[in-house]
Structures are given as structure tokens and as C-alpha cells.
Amino acid sequence: MLTKQASPAEIRQQCRLQNHTGNTSGLAAGYVQANMVILPKTDAADFLQFCQLNPKPCPLVAMSSQPGDTGIISAAVDLDIRTDLPSYRIFRHGELVAEQTDIRGLWQDDLVTFLLGCSFSFEEALIADGLEIRNITEQVNVPMYRTSIRCQPAGKFSGPMVVSMRPMTPANAIRAIQICSRFPQVHGAPIHFGDPSAIGISDINQPDFGDAVSIKPGEVPVFWACGVTPQLAIAEAKPDFCITHTPGCMLVTDIPNSKLALF
Amino acid sequence: MLTKQASPAEIRQQCRLQNHTGNTSGLAAGYVQANMVILPKTDAADFLQFCQLNPKPCPLVAMSSQPGDTGIISAAVDLDIRTDLPSYRIFRHGELVAEQTDIRGLWQDDLVTFLLGCSFSFEEALIADGLEIRNITEQVNVPMYRTSIRCQPAGKFSGPMVVSMRPMTPANAIRAIQICSRFPQVHGAPIHFGDPSAIGISDINQPDFGDAVSIKPGEVPVFWACGVTPQLAIAEAKPDFCITHTPGCMLVTDIPNSKLALF
């Protein structure tokens, strides 16, 4: 059994042994957890440019040095990207074809791995400052919405920006903007607050992904760019082959959250 | 005639010669302009604590080292605080009794000078980033409002926080929060945005000080703590004797705005 005190290396080891195959939320407090995207080299250059052009929804924390590499030393010692996540999703031509706990049998020498920052890091920083995160209080998934904001396209990758929403009082939203601004590699500052329709959200109580949360009197919805954005771009691009993490089942890295702080 | 290119020292010299007796807005671009408060030593300790307890409306940039000092070397070389502002207001027992361009005849050995940051500095930083400041576009004074937020009292000094308001889109407000957070000595980040009634403002179109500005569709009012706050606290405290700058007629210091940036 993994505890909250388990180190990132222990967690990866338990994933590798297939003893842990589920959600990583709350594990290895203080360490960066990453969204993962694996693409063949033929699509990787475009995807890298997509991340570069859209750093708020697609903040690149690390990537493999060479196609075929199964380790990323800047993210984790002894990493085997093929085994060290709890669960993987396999896509062919944009279709989800399998969900499995080990991808060694699918590995190819042309595969490039991308690690993208995730909101767990900034939620931890907000909670440490005493702010309430409604989706955590209400024990549901954060509500996420497609917006009318278009990402900058790169090759075959394009699509709408997806945002996550956390309700806050204006004073807490100002504090959250300050804190999150220090962490551009985990989505950074919010991109909007207030009127949902200004970014193309027609009903705040009907998220496109995740669960609705209550918005109390005096609070405004605050919107962050969300890591589901690259997943939608990949779904629309339909690359021949793609592997991602299973939602919520992230790569736990050795990078302390504080190392991502600008200052 | 003073030009925009005039140095802070030239401006102070022209004030000393009584050639410049008016507004300092737009002069000496890039340098901190300061609100000034002069109080007898008997009241100065309480006022200093009031500033310490309420740093957002009363951000202390510098103060005289010893009672009676007429210079503040950390703010300006060769400063004579008795002559180097364009215009002064004299208060006795809380009543405005005179407005004059030189206070040498009123100087006492027990007077302590406080210099407080002003919004000119952060407005400059916002404009440099491409943001529009509505009161500047519309060529009026910034609208200011008494709020229901009480300052932390210190001795005889207490009162409501006064705020200034600048309308912005949410995206621009987020950027403004980031920029202003770097400058705590010139009021720092906004303290509120959105619903005026949440901070006790009943009619956004009826400011208590300054002029109303237009709020366009898609914009929200953004509120900053304002340097009128200590003026109200002094008016309510009714110290036997007090000298301030005349509104808009600030001390132009030698401190570059960028020197006040936290990072």
C-alpha cells in the first residue's frame, strides 16, 4: 500500500510492479505530477510546436532527449516511461483502443515522450496558502469546459482551449493569481474570471468534463488553462499512434513543486 | 518650463524657485512620486504604526531619520522638504487653514516627514505593458471611493480604506494583478474586483473623490487601495498640526520606479 509519505521513486516502483494502477491524486505531496503524451517522431515536432505556441494549456516540463528514450533524467531518476505510470491509454488513428498498465510491448524506437505540468502542483500551493479548492472540499473532479478561445495551431494539432474552474471570492482570486503566476509550468495564472459567456461557456453548471461544483454568494468563477486541451487537440488530429496517461493516473516525478517557481 | 524630460532634481529645483507650483502628473517619467505627510513627533509614532498596519493604502517609501530633518537622503539628494514640492496644505486641528508653496516659515524641530507611494508608479508600469488606464484616456482624475473596509487603527489614526478604480477586461485585470504585485510600495495588487457593493460602494458612477469613468461591456471595475486613505485618517484624527502635499502636487523623488519592484 502506498502512503502519502511514499517517495516519488517508491510510487514509480509500485507502478512498475503493477501494485499501484490507480489515481495518483494526493500521493507524494510536494512533487510535480505530469500529464504524459507519447507520439511517433513524425508527429512529435508539430506537437512540440503546439506546446510552444500554447504554453498555458500545454506547459512542457520535460521531454525525452532522443526518440526511443525510455528515461527522462531531468524528471526522474531510473525512469522507465513504459512501466512507471499507473495506467496508460493507447490511441490509434484518434480512437482509444486499449487501457493498460504497461506499454513495453508497444514500444518503438521512434517514440517521443512529452511531460506536461498539471494543476495538482498549483492546487497544493493554493491550499498551503490557506485557500479553499472547491472541487477538493466537495470531493469531486474539477469542472472543465471547452471555450471559444482557439489554440494557436501547429501542423495537424489545433482545437479549443479547455479550462478548469475554481470558484473564489475576488480577494482570494487575486491571491490565487499571485501564487499561480509563480508557476508558469503548471498552467500559471488564470486566464479569465467572472462571466463564463465571455469565453464561450454557456452553462457553468454543465461542465464538459469533470463535475459541477457549488459557487457561493460573493464568489466568482476563476478559470485556468487545462491539460485536457492537448488531449482534445490529439483527439482531433488523429495521429496514427499515440499513448497518454489515463486521466488522474499521472507520472510522479522527482521534481519538487517549489523548483518550478519562478521566484 | 518643465518638460517631460526634466530630471527629478530639476523639478525639485523649479519647485524651490516657485517656478512650478502645480500638478506633477506626467513629469519625470520613470521616477517615484510620493505622497507626503508631516506630523509633530507626538503623533508620528502612531502614524508610523498606522502605515505599518495598513501597508496597502499607506505604503511607506521613506521617512525622515530624525525629527526636524528637512532632507531624506534615501529619497532624493539635496532634498529640502520645506520647498521642494509644488504646493503644501497646512492643517490645524484637522482643519485646512492654508495652501502655500513654501513651508520654511512653519518648520519646527519636532516635525517628522513620511513619504508614501502613489499610483502614478503602477499606472506607468501598466501603460508600459500596453494596458489602457481609463482615467488617463478620458483625461480625468481617477475615481475614488470610501469602502466598508476598516483600516487597522493605531492610536488616534483610524478610518475607512479608500480605493481607486480602473475598469479592465478580466484578462487585463489578471495582467494588472501580476504587474502590481511586483510593487507593494505603490499600493501593490488590487484588493477587489467586480461587485462594488461587496466593499460597501453603493454607486460606482458616484465616486466620493475624483471623477467617474466609463466602464465598457465586458469590463469589471478593479479596485486598488488608495493614498487618500491616510488623508482621511488624518482628517478624522485631527492632529494639532499637520502638513501634506496638495493633491496631485507630489514630491518627485530620485528613486526609479523599477527600484521598487520586488523582482
From TrEMBL, chains A, B:
Keywords: Lyase. Coiled coil: none annotated. Gene3D superfamilies: PSTPO5379-like, PSTPO5379-like domain. Its EC number is 4.2.1.-. It is an enzyme of class 4 (lyase). Pfam families: D-Glu_cyclase. It comes from the Bacteria. Belongs to the D-glutamate cyclase family. This is Putative hydro-lyase Q3O60_06120. It comes from Alkalimonas collagenimarina. The lineage of its organism: Bacteria, Pseudomonadati, Pseudomonadota, Gammaproteobacteria, Alkalimonas.
